[in-house]
């Protein structure tokens, strides 16, 4: 049974359109995945860095004023509920203990130094995590580019082969 010329042309167009959709869909998938990874990198670690910065600011202006202690306490509580990295929990527990000592004993330079070290350690862990996650996202982006390039190359080769062979398919007897 011979296929009509109009049907052959339509099938050829559908085939090329399907190749185009394949490349577009894969590109969209990988771009979305990279976008989500980037959001995840920034959100939790940024919050911790922000809380840490605020605690350092409060520590700098600490006058044993109830408001200063309350603001520090608020940021410490937020930090305690935003533990995302290995080792961060222990550092936050140490920070809590030292802050409780500071509240009880008063404004001590040695306690402030220990609190600063705890906050600095928490910040360092989160900065390292951001760097590590960023490197993973970069690698993922490179992998996505490689996969898209391979698929695009295959689609172009198949498309060109189809374009050059299509006239002979159409010209064959009806």
What attributes does this structure have?
single chain, 174 residues, mainly alpha, 4 helices, 0% strand, rod-shaped
Notes on the structure:
The chain has 174 residues and is mainly α. The chain has one domain (5-171). The chain has four helices and no strands. α1 (5-60) runs antiparallel to α2 and α1 packs antiparallel against α4. The radius of gyration is 30 Å and the shape is rod-shaped. The model has no long low-confidence stretch (mean pLDDT 85).
Task: Please sum up the structure shown.
The chain has 174 residues and is an all-alpha fold. It contains four helices and no strands. It starts with a helix and ends with a helix.
How would the blueprint of this fold be written?
Blueprint lengths: L4 H56 L5 H15 L7 H18 L3 H63 L3
Helix pairs in contact: 1-2, 1-4, 2-3, 3-4
């Amino acid at each position: 049974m011979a296929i009509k010329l109009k049907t052959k042309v339509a099938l050829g167009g559908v085939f090329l359109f399907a190749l185009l959709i394949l490349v577009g869909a894969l590109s969209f998938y990988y771009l979305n995945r990279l976008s989500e990874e980037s959001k995840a990198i920034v959100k939790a670690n940024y919050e911790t860095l922000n809380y840490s910065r605020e605690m350092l600011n409060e520590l700098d202006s600490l006058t044993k004023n109830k408001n200063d202690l309350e603001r520090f306490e608020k940021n410490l509580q937020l930090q305690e509920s935003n533990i995302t990295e290995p080792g961060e929990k222990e550092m936050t527990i140490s920070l809590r203990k030292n802050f409780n000592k500071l509240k009880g004993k008063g404004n001590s330079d040695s306690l402030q130094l220990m609190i600063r070290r705890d906050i600095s350690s928490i910040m360092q862990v989160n900065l390292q995590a951001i760097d590590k996650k960023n490197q993973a996202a970069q690698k993922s982006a490179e992998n996505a580019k490689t996969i898209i390039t391979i698929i695009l190359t295959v689609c172009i080769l198949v498309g060109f082969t189809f374009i050059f062979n299509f006239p002979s398919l159409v010209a064959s007897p009806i």
